[in-house]
User: What shape does this take?
Amino acid sequence: MAKITLDNLAHSYLPKPASEDDFALKELNHDWVDGEAYALLGSSGCGKSTLLNIISGLLHPSQGRILFNDRDVTHAPTAERNIAQVFQFPVVYDTMTVRDNLAFPLRNRGADPAYVAQRVQQIAQMIGMEAELGNKARGLTADAKQKISLGRGMVREDVNALLFDEPLTVIDPHMKWELRTQLKSLHHEFGHTMIYVTHDQTEALTFADKVVVMFDGRVVQIGTPQELFERPAHTFVGYFIGSPGMNLFDAKIDGATAQIAGVQVPLGAGYVPTGGKVQVGVRPEFIKLTAGGTGVPARITRVEDVGRHKIVRLDVDGHEISAIAGEGDSFSADSQTITFDPQGINVYADDWRVAPTGEAA
Ligand code: ADP
Ligand code: MG
Assistant: This one.
């Protein structure tokens, strides 16, 4: 197992990148702590696979270095890095049995046959394919083949890291949950460094100790699920994580007060934002509705009952925002005012969070 260090890493698929826009992966410095389970989360095209393939050695970065336990492996081939990687679509040997597919990485390294038999049995149980061990992979469903790919990724206990690139895309929803649970228990059991790529926030938040959020080729925040919820470092994190995502209000800020839609709003802390676009971010959970109060005027456009609570859609100064209300709440008038719980307020300048004065950076 290994600590993985990314040192000034960046990648462009163009031979002569001219500007930052030409980089699929913008400059990045990061240590992946040995033994941690990470999720790499972001929408399609943001650079997740690029980063993963650089770590595994399928791709060589156009800038910077990659170190395993402080050893430079930037130019080392994939085989030398001792990494297991599982891709979005199945990679199996069709002419081999399920058993031989699973055993392949172990036999390839000359493992003891008795150990191979026992380990393959264990993995087959984890992926729910014990009954098919003797079957040829050819003819199995895409779903079953992907389970084999996952199993092959998990079979070796001595790898430096396990990389998963959206591995559950072709798996049916129930089995998805099951396999994710298995991956988690595998992590508890062996303590491998794991990086799990997904565009699904639920998957990321339930799998990982730490979530690495990417946006447009850049890592915008690395944090625990709670940190991402409470203190999104970038407006994208606020919007992408949460259901519904964080609301953003254009604001003018003077110390501990914001002016939003012409109303003075207390922020609970002082801010000195520098930047063109200043916004106040508040998650729907921290917005309170009152009919005829002194807050920011808002008009209810729709109320969605989602079971445990209600999502109230509002028009504030021409922008749609969302608030979460209790299951039992009812609204007699469309015309409301909204107030914010100061605990749930974050301030952004040009999309990056501004720390309140006095907060350690
Ligand atoms: P993700 O895995 O997050 O969906 P990728 O890392 O695959 O994103 O892609 C990041 C960006 O790099 C995208 O704009 C994509 O079009 C581009 N890209 C990916 N692979 C290649 C390639 N082989 N050649 C050129 N551009 C690529
Ligand atoms: Mg990808």
